[in-house]
Amino acid sequence: MAMLQAAPAAEPSGTAAFMIQMFPLLAIFVIFYVLMIRPQQRRVKEHQAAISAIKKGDEVITGGGIRGKVTRVMDDDAEVEIAQGVKIRVVKSTITGVATGSSKPAND
Length: 108
Known about the structure:
Blueprint: H1 14-52, E1 59-62, E2 67-73, E3 77-83, E4 86-91, E5 95-99
Antiparallel strand pairs: 1-2, 1-5, 2-3, 3-4
């Protein structure tokens, strides 16, 4: 009978219960930010820096997979020579990769 009359354990107050429930969500968001958002932002900044540093003679790869050598750089565009005497203008933001002009192809 004495067991039935024992007072129940104290429950956390409303604010403490709310914080206990929110902690897992906050932890998930922090982990998501550290593992996914921050590295993606770093890659975007590196890509923008590479695009803004394009100069004549750099070898580039466009979003469509076309490789070529930059012959002229304008504000938003670049002129790329994809074959001898064949030049195309591409929007700089569509360039996905940049290699310096100092490297030579293996088959030359």
